[in-house]
Design goal:
Layout: E1 5-7, E2 14-23, H1 27-38, E3 43-48, H2 49-52, H3 56-59, H4 72-79, H5 84-87, E4 91-93, E5 97-101, E6 104-108, H6 111-120, H7 126-149, E7 153-154, H8 181-184, H9 188-201, H10 211-221, E8 225-227, H11 235-246, E9 248-253, E10 258-263, E11 266-271, E12 276-285, H12 289-303, H13 311-320, E13 328-330, E14 332-339, E15 350-354, E16 366-372, E17 380-387, H14 395-409, E18 418-419, E19 432-434, E20 446-447, E21 449-451, E22 456-458, H15 469-487
Helix pairs in contact: 1-11, 1-15, 6-7, 7-10, 12-13
Length: about 500
């Protein structure tokens, strides 16, 4: 593998070994690490120092999707053998989120009144609304069954791959898959509302997820979401504690001050500052390969006195790690604080904002807003906004658009709205969105293995990007089991 320079371990090197090294500390990385460890293997999770220092709300998913009715979050937490006290931290919330735009504040979640909401905002007539909500819920349930029964990943060289996957049902779930006709052919105003939700929930840089993926994310939202009590550990904290307490170690590195190496057939990292070499029987790349390659190349160039943005140096690493041209796009993440008393009455903890309702592309200008209270009686709250800059705007333009929308949404909090500046990770960030593989997204299975000698794997998030958080969870789960089977 050309991205890994071969080195010989001798007395000059301080080498440490694990069964698996996982690059990344986001949701899919931690789930994969926990599953590998659950099978008896020692795991090292390598994250970026800047990611470890981020405020907790900045790393939490916008919506805890699949937290009820046997969804992926509920199933994953159970399969990770988390104590009941940890699983109970994620309490059902009838309201998944609100979709807010000019003259629109649509509550999504709670099947009992989903149709009423569509009618109340003039998006559908009563009979049409009831049929649409029922069809979407059924489509989402069908995709849930297929998702939890699917191996999700494939790799020709893996031994006993099937042992790591959920057993296939005796009879495959029946029914027409994809978006129901009522949704796929919805009028323009309602179609824009659906497209905005898909943009906020799915993790794709361009193009669109499959109809099956859209059916799952939209259908699951009809059942509501989940929440944790203010001040309680979130999903990332729960997963980190599980890995560190039982299965291995979590270590942080500054920036990308390391080189990917092959030491006598073992893949790993050679740290430039300390001279240590961390090796595993397997290396798992659980971050955007484009972002990782660019960061490694930029760090090496900077140390050599060259250009820190030399794309030509990153290209071979990116290709070897399975990146797709033209690279990755980064979702813009903005952190604000505002007075809790200034939040509008009736505003939910999660909001999908239509900041450019007249855009030609209905997915342009969509932002997700999550409200995090540090405690039950907090006077100020954290606001985390995510948006993907449109093709015709710079990140600065997108930030200005988002802030203008926030001030309009919360006029009584605008005077106390404070932007919190923070250092963002360069590569260890689930906000990096790779291009979708042509014809290879869900329900197609994702390729897992990148290289056999040395054994390198990639968690192919783009292949399940349309499923949002549930895609990350199941990708980590199935990939971890498959890698553990290969290690055995």
């Amino acid at each position: 593998m050309s991205a890994l320079r071969s080195i010989a371990i001798d007395a000059r090197h301080r080498a440490r070994r694990w069964d698996a090294i996982v690059l990344g500390s986001g949701v899919p990385a931690l789930v994969a690490a926990a599953r590998i460890g659950l099978h008896g293997h020692r795991v090292l999770v390598v994250g970026e120092e800047a990611a470890a220092k981020l405020a907790a709300p900045l790393r939490e998913p916008f919506l805890l999707a699949g937290a009820q009715n046997g969804g992926a979050l509920e199933a994953t937490l159970r399969e990770l053998k988390l104590p009941l006290i940890d699983r109970r931290r994620f309490q059902p919330d009838a309201l998944a989120y609100q979709v807010v735009g000019p003259e629109l504040r649509l509550d999504v979640g709670g099947l009992a009144h989903g149709a009423d909401e569509l009618v109340a905002w003039g998006l559908a007539k009563p009979e049409e609304a009831r049929a649409l909500v029922d069809a979407l819920a059924q489509a989402g349930e069908l995709e849930r069954q297929h998702l939890l029964a699917s191996p999700v990943v494939r790799s020709g060289g893996l031994r006993a791959l099937a042992r790591g996957a959920a057993p296939a049902p005796a009879t495959a779930p029946r029914g027409a898959r994809g978006l129901p006709p009522e949704v796929a052919n919805a009028p323009a105003a309602l179609g824009r509302v659906f497209a905005a939700q898909v943009r906020a929930l799915a993790g794709h840089a361009s193009g669109g997820p499959s109809g099956e993926a859209c059916a799952r994310v939209l259908g699951d939202a009809q059942a509501g979401g989940a929440c944790v009590e203010p001040g309680s550990p979130g999903l990332l904290d729960v997963l980190r504690r599980r890995v560190e307490s039982l299965y291995g170690e979590l270590r942080s590195v500054r920036g990308a001050a390391f080189e990917l190496v092959n030491a006598n057939g073992l893949p790993g990292l050679a740290l430039r500052e300390s001279g240590e070499v961390w090796l595993g029987k397997a290396l798992v790349v659980a971050v955007s390969p484009s972002a990782l390659a660019a960061a490694i190349a930029a760090d090496a160039a900077s140390r050599a006195g060259g250009r820190a943005d030399d794309a030509s140096a990153a290209a071979p690493i990116a290709r070897a790690l399975g990146a797709r041209a033209p690279g990755a796009a980064r979702r813009l993440v903005l952190h604000y604080r505002a007075p809790a008393a200034g939040l509008p009455e009736g505003m939910g903890a999660r909001v999908v904002l239509l900041t450019r309702p007249d855009a030609k592309d209905p997915q342009d200008g969509v932002a997700s807003l999550a409200v995090h209270a540090p405690g039950p009686r907090a006077e100020r709250v954290d606001l985390v906004v995510r948006t993907l800059p449109a093709a015709d705007e710079t990140p600065a333009d997108a930030a200005a658009r988002v802030e203008a929308a926030l001030r309009e949404l919360m006029p009584f909090a605008a005077a106390g709205l404070e932007r919190v500046r923070t250092e963002l990770p360069r590569w260890d960030d689930d906000e990096w969105l790779e291009e979708l593989p042509a014809g290879g997204t869900w329900p197609a299975e994702a390729e897992l293995r990148v290289s056999s000698r040395p054994p390198v794997y990639r968690l192919d998030r783009p292949a399940l990007a349309g499923l949002g958080l549930e895609g990350d969870l199941v990708l980590g789960w199935r990939s971890g089991d498959a890698i553990a089977a290969d290690l055995a």
